[in-house]
Amino acid sequence: MSVRQAIQDVTDRIAARSRDSRRDYLNRIESAREAGVNRTVLSCGNLAHAFAACTPTEKAQLAGGKSLNLGIVTSYNDMLSAHQPYQFYPDIIKQAVRDMGHTAQVAGGVPAMCDGVTQGQPGMDLSLFSRDVIAMATAISLSHNMFDAAVYLGICDKIVPGLLIGALTFGHLPAVFVPAGPMPSGLPNDEKSKIRQLYMEGKVGRAELLEAESKSYHSAGTCTFYGTANSNQMLMEIMGLHLPGASFVNPGTPLRDALTKEASVRALSLSAQGNNYTPVGHVIDEKAIVNGLVGLHATGGSTNHTMHLIAIAAAAGLQVTWDDMSDLSDATPLLARVYPNGVADVNHFHAAGGMGFLIQELLESGHLHEDVKTVWGNGLSNYSVEAKLIDEKLAFEPAPKESALPKVLAKVSAPFQETGGLKLLSGNLGRSVIKVSAVKPEHRVIEAPARVFHGQEGLQAAFKAGELTGDMIAVVRFSGPKALGMPELHKLTPALGVMQDRGFKVALLTDGRMSGASGKVPAAIHMTPEAINGGPIAKIRDGDMIRLDANAGTLTFLGDEKELLARTPAVEDLTSQHFGMGRELFAGFRAMVGVADKGASVFQ
Question: Are 294 and 367 in contact (CB under 8 A)?
Answer without folding.
Answer: yes
